[in-house]
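User: Can you help me understand a structure? I only have the sequence.
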Amino acid sequence: MGMVGGGPGAFIGPVHRIAAELDGKIELVAGAFSQSPEGSRRAGATYRIDPSRAYGDYQQMLEAERKRADAIDFVAIVTPNHLHLPIALAALEAGIPVMSDKPATASYEEALKLAVAVAKSGLPYGLTHTYAGYQMVREARAMCAAGKLGAIRKVAVEYFQGWLSGPLEGTGHKQAAWRTDPARSGSGGAIGDIGTHAFHLLEYVSGLKVTEMNATLRTVVPGRKLDDDCNAFLRMNNGAAGTLACSQVAAGEMNELLLRIYGEKGSLEWQQQDPNRLVVRWLDKPEEVYHAAASYLGADARVVARTPGGHPEGYLEAFAVLYGEFADALVAWKQGKLGPLPATLPGIEAGVRGMHFIERAIESNKRQGWVEF
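Assistant: Let's start by predicting it. Here is the structure, written out as tokens:
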């Protein structure tokens, strides 16, 4: 793996590195970690890679790595959103597969451009919608696909954080600064940063697609340039109703992602802060609680378990599941056997839909009413 981003002060870069290396399938060997050569050098020393492979910028990395006998096999993009498209396009043009942090790009138009480039290249492209890697999310997804809840009637997802309840971006906080800056984050604030996660999780688990939405975006903190709070009503392609709420000004909340799906026979509930349990409530029989790594889980959940039941797995392990699936896809690609990426691994389609979700939410807010998805 060669990484772009993840330099001094970064949050998500070290997470990507730890997750990628967790299963022993991937090793970080090169990177352009910062927009300054010195910052990249310092980050490279922290990651303990060969100093000659800590590059000043991503163009330099791609050019140099193409000439090496031990060149990188793929690029991980962990930068602010506005750099996702140019880095991905450059990597694909160089013949190098891409694993990108979400959202895929900074705008819907960019996502469409990237989708064309991915299709033209024929190279693997993965997107780290982290929550798709959790065991119990995989179990919930399989239950919905098998029709165990019956016809789905209502879906609800909420993602609440409180860390931006004040003007943190004005204090020199690096993460707050770029995530609230439209030049680097894109047109979506909370709706882009965490709303896309909620949107993806809802469709990923339910198997349904949003067809219409009515969203209200707010900017609560005075002077902030992007939304920090959102509420949306959804209509799904089977006629079900849905709600999506996300906020980064929910004081006291840390990372409260909650999914509920209601069918005619029963419902399920999953919480990211208690990720090793899946609660299933039936219309006419007792409530059931499913536990991670249990023998009664379906194949999709069992295959991603690393430890016995009662040994909790969480955020890093979920990230690692996605990287492991991507690594397996790369091996198949190198052997000339690559077909579609695993259905469980988010790719360019998820990237395009996520960016379209942001665009439609903003349009709905402007119209103050329903819009077609």
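Now, to help you interpret it: The longest strand covers residues 152-160. Residues 315-334 form the longest helix (20 residues). Let me know which part you'd like to focus on.
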